[in-house]
Every structure is written in structure tokens, then in C-alpha cells.
Amino acid sequence: MSIVISTNNLQHTVVTLYANTICEVELNDDYFYTIKEAIEISKTLGEFSKKSKLRAVLVAGQYSDCDAETRKFIASEEICNNIVAMAILTKSMAQDLLGNFILVYDKPSKPAKVFRSKEKAWEWILSK
Fold first, then answer.
1. Domain range summary for the chain, segments of one domain joined by +
2. Terminus of the chain with fewer CB atoms < 10 Å: N or C?
């Protein structure tokens, strides 16, 4: 684990920036994300990336979901402009399916991969 530089606690998400340029985006449990929340997260990533591009680790919330517009936005250049790569950390088979759906159909413009293990996600993202 790395030293925490900054944390932004949104009502729906906790975004933490670490000294190693990993930005962990921890989504709340039991929450339905829309474009409104995605834009708020994007603004925080923009604020955190002023000094260098980030390595984003998106931690899926238990039983959380998003609409199609939000999925497309997550994969868009607007989000990906501030990052080097994105790891999606899941907790269930349903989240694995959603994460892989984003990778295959929404096609993020930066390298992205789905993981179940935080250690493997961090190892992969730090190699980017």
C-alpha cells in the first residue's frame, strides 16, 4: 500500500489518491450510478491529475449498477484523458460480467482489465 495524498468523499463514492499515482474510486454499495455521479467522479479525477496522469482502480460497490449512458461515459476519452490505465475490481460474478461488458462493448480508450484481487489489480496497474 502507498501513502495517501488526498481523499474526496462524495456522497456516493470515495476517491483516494495515493503517492504512487493510483487513484482508487470506491463506489458505494446498493447505489444506482447515473451520468450525474460519473461527472462528479470525473471532476475529482481531473483535480487529482493536475501533476501527473493517474492509474485508476475502480472498486465496484456490492449490488451497485449504472445505466448505459454512464457505462459509455466511464469508457470515454473525457474520463480516460486523466488516466494511464483502469483496473476494475469486482466482488461478484454479476460485476465481472458488467466489467467485461464495459471492456468489450464500450471499449475504454486506455488499457483496462477486470480483477477480483486488489493485490493483482494494483500489481497490473502499476506496470502501466
1. 4-126
2. N
- State the Cα–Cα distance between residues 21 and 93, nearest whole angstrom: 28
- Residue 35 CA to residue 37 CA, distance in Å, equals 6
- What confidence tens digit (pLDDT) does each residue in 67-101 have? 999 988 988 888 878 899 999 999 999 899 988 98
Cα–Cα dist 106/76, whole Å: 8
Sheet holding 13-18, edge to edge: 4-9, 13-18, 22-27, 54-59, 83-89, 112-115
State how far the Cα of 41 lies from the Cα of 67, in Å rounded to an integer: 15
Residue 92: other Cβ atoms inside 10 A: 12
Exposed/middle/buried for 77, CB within 10 Å: 0-12, 13-18, 19+?
exposed
Q: Which CATH class is domain 4-126?
A: alpha beta
